[in-house]
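<purpose> Linking amino acid order to shape
<body> The protein record starts here
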Amino acid sequence: MQIVVGIVCMVAAANIQYAWTLFVPEIQATHGWTRASIQTAFTVFVVVQTWLTPIEGYFIDRYGPRAIVAFGGVMTGLSWIVDSYAGSLSMLYVGSAIGGIGVGCVYATCVNSALKWFPDKRGLAVGLTAGGYGAGSAVTILPIANMIHSSGYQATFFWFGLLQGTIILIAAFFLRAPQKDQVKASTKVLQSRRDYTLKEALQTPVFWVMMVMFICTVSGGLMAVAQLGVIAHDLGVKEAPISLFGITMAALPFALMLDRVMNGISRPLFGFVSDHIGREATMFIAFTFEGLGILMLSRFGHDPIMFLILSGLVFLAWGEVYSLFSATSADTFGTKHAAKIYGVLYCAKGVAALLVPLGNLLMEATGTWATVLYICATMDLIAAFCAIAVLRPMLRKHHARNAELAARQGTGGLAVQTGH
């Protein structure tokens, strides 16, 4: 029930990020604002969502999941309602900041809940929950696109904002934290039973290695989320009709719908895999696929079918970052302060969001998206290498130190995994 409720909340919060690209051309056509200035609103949303997560983590640990998600639902709904009345860029930015607060509360709380309820299946549990956020907008992409076309983007902002906020508010009342006797540790993945404080976690080198890897991998996917509509337009495939599986649709909405599904599938899929072969090996596989997918998108994306397939591959290999890093964080530092610790780690997404407007500027300077996509792919491949060559040995040393300390103190400090 806790997983189901968490997924419902995530689905209702997802559109603020994943449907944004549908609104950008309409806002530009209505107000004449530059593309870069409109996309700054997306950056504001992501930065607020991510950089406030450590603070939200403090309130989650203090007041529990129900109150924080209910507040997040109110703010999530209010965000799009404000956007619907935005007649200036400053008001659009205010709406985005409100949305960042709301979605941050929902996202951080639901992920934290999954981490605590299912330590023995942490990758899968977090993957399913985060998958609700990644795939949640798939069912609403077409209704939102149709309503924008028929009623205008302002009415779409208003009514979908009201609907999404209400759903989250209702679902929040079913959330609760687990009792100690309701959970059990994994026997397959190394997990610390020592609960690090935030200060202690920040003093470990492994935390900062994960932070750098997170920034590298999240940048490419975040660029695609915010800019896919723009990239499709500039590649000349936005309106190109595609017929696949008996469905005929323009390339961009088809890609957006497929990408949301692939993004959602990737989180539980790679999370499940990581529960069995380890987080670092799974990171290496996924990050390599993402890097290669972005490289091929830059090379073959001008073909509508290839644009559809390759964008789907990119999102399949990108979405898992939100299940893998959160699960690895809890494995490494324990769950008592997991909300605060992962909250700081999640700020990597805020750093990456600062690169989104730079992508527009670089594209305008070079006249092509190839340079931007090559940079993102390189960052993914670097992170893939680090997962095996840097992170894996560091985690082994980290857990070995915990086990040695626990042995001296006569306590059980580690859930031991065999063969890893």
About this structure: The chain has a mean pLDDT of 82.
